[in-house]
Amino acid sequence: MPQTIPLTAEIVTFRIIDGPSNEALLIVACGTDKIVRAAPGFISHQLSCDSVCLWSDVRYGNCDQAACR
To answer: For residue 25, what is the DSSP state?
Structure first.
């Protein structure tokens, strides 16, 4: 039987209280894209903002031993 590697989802929700605008946050987030994609086990990443300015940052990956340390 083949070995399966569990998938993981890291989900973070947040609001910007004081500080950068939504546009500024997107610029900074785009600057980290290369680092996020280079992480072991990386599958996909999504950053979104809803109508009440609640941000969601979702990352999916394969959770083998090296990726989960």
So the answer is: H
Residue numbers of the domain that contains 58? 7-62
Q: Global pTM?
A: 0.71
List C-alpha distances in Å: 29 to 3, 23, 55, 61, 63. 35, 10, 12, 18, 23
State how many domains the chain has. Answer: 1
**CB-CB contact of 6 with 58 (8 Å):** no
Higher pLDDT among residues 21 and 1, named by residue: 21
Q: Domain of 49: which CATH number? A: 3.30.1370
Instruction: Enumerate residues 6+ apart whose C-beta is below 8 A from 28.
Output: 20
